[in-house]
């Protein structure tokens, strides 16, 4: 009697192929997992070792097809700012139903929006959720549903919260395409609010590594974790660090109120107005709980800026 053919390991499925999802897919491959990377069209550049899969995970059928036979699902889907309040709850409903049906664990990439205005207080996982903005309240409601689904046994869920992204491939961030192209070419560098306030940024590679760890460690399930984030410094200090790397002074344009400028168009800034408090009070995220529990550390900000400048140099050459 012949032995049964061994079955291939179940895939880790990444929903969303933006900077976080793509970096996570690469990290999971590096760790030896089979990976399926899902977005609506699956037309992006090939990622070595990654199966690209087209699906609209805002629909029940699309989510079910994307998540089929998954071991772990990573929800890294995001949409344009003006669509978030409408679309993100629909994605949650479809994804939660699909993981409930399949039995896969769910790792959700989250934001600090649920905390709302803190008056500059350090944000920890124990900070109260006091959001008053539409997008902040929406995120808080989604998070409550995720955690309730875990408590009820409907699904196994864990949430990883990140501060603003920075790093290779990150364009749509206040420390992204509004900063590095101008820094490298002598053009305008856009900043917002009070640039002397400390502001946390999470390196995109740290986001990827931490989400992969949450996917491998079910002992972290059922709660919110702050992903490893380097100590906050002021935007002015970050500008000085970038100046050293590009060898020129930055031509900084500070937006003291939301208005269209550079890569920030009118529609985006109109939607961002309710979140502008993030640039008029300190934004300090503490990730010590994750670092201690999972024995992880954030990449030093200087190293992240080195990698980011290098990536933007290549990006500008390719345009």
CATH superfamily annotation of the domain at 12-115 and 123-168 and 200-231 and 284-299 = NAD(P)-binding Rossmann-like Domain
Q: pLDDT under 50 segments (min length 5)?
A: none
- The rounded distance between the terminal residues' Cα atoms is 60 Å
Q: For the report, how would you describe the main beta sheet? A: 7 strands, parallel
The strand order across the widest sheet is 3-2-1-4-5-6-11
CATH topology-level fold name of the domain at 12-115 and 123-168 and 200-231 and 284-299: Rossmann fold
Order of helices and strands: EHEEHEHEHEEHEEEHEEHEHHH
Mean pLDDT: 96
Percent of sequence in beta strands: 15-25%
Our count of helices gives: 10
Percent of residues in helices comes to 25-40%
Radius of gyration from the alpha-carbon trace, in angstroms: 20 Å
Basic shape: globular
Pfam families: Epimerase
Organism: Streptomyces coelicolor (strain ATCC BAA-471 / A3(2) / M145)
Protein name: NAD-dependent epimerase/dehydratase domain-containing protein
Domain NAD-dependent epimerase/dehydratase: 16-221
Key attributes of the depicted protein:
two-stranded parallel ribbon, NAD(P)-bd_dom_sf, globular, Epimerase_deHydtase, NAD(P)-dependent_oxidoreduct, seven-stranded parallel β-sheet, 319 residues, alpha/beta, Rossmann fold, NAD-dependent epimerase/dehydratase domain-containing protein
């Amino acid at each position: 009697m012949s032995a049964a053919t061994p079955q291939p390991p179940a895939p880790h499925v990444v929903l969303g192929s933006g900077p976080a999802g793509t970096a996570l897919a690469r990290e999971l491959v590096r760790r030896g997992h089979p990976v399926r990377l899902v977005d609506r069209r699956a037309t992006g550049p090939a990622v070595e070792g990654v199966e690209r899969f087209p699906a609209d995970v805002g629909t029940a059928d699309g989510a079910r097809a994307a998540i089929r036979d998954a071991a772990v699902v990573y929800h890294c889907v995001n949409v344009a700012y003006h669509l978030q309040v409408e679309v993100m709850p629909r994605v949650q409903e479809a994804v939660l139903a699909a993981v409930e049906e399949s039995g896969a664990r769910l790792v959700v990439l989250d934001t600090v929006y649920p905390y709302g205005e803190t008056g500059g207080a350090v944000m920890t996982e124990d900070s109260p959720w006091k959001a008053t903005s539409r997008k902040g309240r929406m995120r808080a409601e989604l998070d409550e549903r995720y955690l309730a689904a875990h408590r009820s046994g409907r699904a196994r869920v864990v949430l990883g919260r990140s501060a603003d992204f920075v790093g290779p491939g990150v364009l749509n961030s206040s420390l992204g395409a509004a900063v590095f192209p101008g820094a490298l070419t002598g053009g305008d560098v856009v900043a917002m609010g009070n640039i002397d306030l400390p502001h946390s940024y999470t390196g995109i590679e740290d986001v990827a590594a931490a989400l992969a760890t949450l996917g491998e460690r079910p002992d972290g399930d059922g709660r919110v974790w702050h992903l490893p984030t380097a100590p906050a410094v002021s935007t002015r200090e970050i500008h000085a660090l970038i100046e050293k790397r590009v060898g020129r002074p930055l031509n900084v344009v500070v937006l003291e109120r939301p208005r269209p400028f550079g890569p920030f168009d009118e529609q985006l800034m109109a939607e961002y107005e309710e979140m502008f408090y993030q640039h008029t009070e300190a934004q300090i995220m503490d990730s010590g709980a994750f670092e201690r529990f999972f024995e992880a550390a954030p990449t030093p900000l200087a190293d992240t800026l080195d990698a980011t400048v290098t990536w933007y140099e290549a990006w500008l050459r390719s345009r």
